[in-house]
Amino acid sequence: MTDARQGLSGLLDTEAIRKDFPILDRTVHDGKKLVYLDSAATSQKPRQVLDALNEYYERHNANVHRGVYTIAEEATALYEGARDKVAAFINAPSRNEVIFTKNASESLNLVANMLGWADEPYRVDSDTEIVTTEMEHHSNIVPWQLLSQRTGAKLKWFGITDDGRLDLSDIDEVITEKTKIVTLTLVSNIMGTINPVEKIIRRAQQVGALVCVDASQAAPHMVLDVQALQADFVAFTGHKMVGPTGIGVLWGRQELLEDLPPFLGGGEMIETVSMHSSTYAPAPHKFEAGTPPIAQAVGLGAAVDYLSAIGMENIHHHEQAITAYAVKRLLEVPDLRIIGPATAEDRGATISFTLGDIHPHDVGQVLDEQGIAVRVGHHCARPVCLRYGIPATTRASFYLYSTPAEVDALVDGLEHVRNFFG
Amino acid sequence: MKLDSMYQEVILDHYKHPHGRGLRDGDAEVHHVNPTCGDEITLRVKYDGETIADVSYEGQGCSISQASASVLNDLLVGKELGEAHKIQEAFLELMQSKGQLEPDETMEELLEDAVAFAGVSKYPARVKCALLSWMAWKDATAQALSEGKTA
């Protein structure tokens, strides 16, 4: 153990936690231990979640909300039980405010489409403005560009500062009486920045605009309380929070979900259907057309149980300790430049960097040879790369199972990269 | 080490000392990107009748994509269009071989330094890097020809 690793406080018992994640035992490239540092892309899954998926398919599989037979009732209870778990996890006032989608992208597209088809006072049209930020994942940019192109609404942006923070100096000019919706990320997926959303929400409330928060990189890592947050919509995805792929969540305030029109039509979301017209089921079902991702929702429920048992506060403290250590160690690597906050304050456990002139692709390839999995590229946040005049970054991201030893492995690996291309 | 099969000395040499880099006069210009990683290349072709008078380029990307553009410049400038297409097709075949193709003598003669990329074909994520400049060249050539500037 290096000296610097001693005295790290707030760490979880990763030895015990890692036993829950079978994949973390894997080796790659002729026996190299897998060092998985790409949890911001997707997290690994604990046995508890894998077992829940398996048990669902082996014991309870049936379509939901239809059959009167035993296993159909069981499947429905499990699916709706997962909704209860998610509602409790985010402190939603009502379980009916939790809509299951296939991922955060679908959740954000759903909000954009609700507003595009809505009547007044929510309707986004050519007289109105949409506000987002330069820091967003493409999934919180493109749906709004589409909405803007289709409705003629103006798309406005908050910029970012040199040190990877949102530039709110022009907040009163960006969010105005014309603003209908402000949509932004709680935690940047490329820089790890935790954004001061309260300030933005206050301003949005002053002008009567709705606020949509992309919590994809927040929900897995910290306490997410939608009531405390005071946003109108919150989107996140299951697979980044130890759940399966194929399940996402949109939380929305109940009165909005009652007022806003459905987007996808089909089975499950209706009340009555005739050839002339249909009436819709109340939320959340109004927004869940077709057979939903049942097993995946059940898996997400198990993921929420898993995270809650460890405690989101504890997970957050663990990641803060790992992040502080990682920032410190990475800054010791010659020619390494952190893109985003170069301190551990107000940031999550995702750190992007460049290494001299060595392209991130080459960095990632040489790290992979040592068993270290990082993400390279623009991380679906190309405007951030453009902002800093770089083609791409190497990104290391940590989670509840990450250890200081893995930070050391990364730093050693980067030394090897420098030698290889030196 | 496996990594050395990808990062051959020849490739690293071309990466560190690229041949023919920089944009010069051309008949057509294209800009190609690799959307998954952000590699970019702007490439111009200049034809003198059926002969490739110049391929000039500017771009940013990993060692593989940059070295590949350098090798392309070496191989194609001065060649007749028909020969150039043969080289391009051979390189494409090599890159799509998933590491299964052992270049024979004919291919080695045709591809010269470009056979060093054989190891890259084992890494699916990197094949696109190696092919970026070649696809750009093909596109630029098609544009130059359709504009009738090579007649």
From TrEMBL, chain A:
<keyword id="KW-0663">Pyridoxal phosphate</keyword>
<dbReference type="Pfam" id="PF00266">
    <property type="entry name" value="Aminotran_5"/>
</dbReference>
<keyword id="KW-0808">Transferase</keyword>
<dbReference type="InterPro" id="IPR015424">
    <property type="entry name" value="PyrdxlP-dep_Trfase"/>
</dbReference>
<protein>
    <recommendedName>
        <fullName>cysteine desulfurase</fullName>
        <ecNumber>2.8.1.7</ecNumber>
    </recommendedName>
</protein>
<comment type="similarity">
    <text>Belongs to the class-V pyridoxal-phosphate-dependent aminotransferase family. Csd subfamily.</text>
</comment>
<dbReference type="InterPro" id="IPR010970">
    <property type="entry name" value="Cys_dSase_SufS"/>
</dbReference>
<dbReference type="GO" id="GO:0031071">
    <property type="term" value="F:cysteine desulfurase activity"/>
</dbReference>
<dbReference type="InterPro" id="IPR000192">
    <property type="entry name" value="Aminotrans_V_dom"/>
</dbReference>
<feature type="domain" description="Aminotransferase class V">
    <location>
        <begin position="35"/>
        <end position="410"/>
    </location>
</feature>
<dbReference type="InterPro" id="IPR015422">
    <property type="entry name" value="PyrdxlP-dep_Trfase_small"/>
</dbReference>
<dbReference type="InterPro" id="IPR015421">
    <property type="entry name" value="PyrdxlP-dep_Trfase_major"/>
</dbReference>
UniProtKB/TrEMBL annotation, chain B:
<dbReference type="Pfam" id="PF01592">
    <property type="entry name" value="NifU_N"/>
</dbReference>
<feature type="domain" description="NIF system FeS cluster assembly NifU N-terminal">
    <location>
        <begin position="6"/>
        <end position="129"/>
    </location>
</feature>
<dbReference type="InterPro" id="IPR002871">
    <property type="entry name" value="NIF_FeS_clus_asmbl_NifU_N"/>
</dbReference>
<protein>
    <submittedName>
        <fullName>SUF system NifU family Fe-S cluster assembly protein</fullName>
    </submittedName>
</protein>
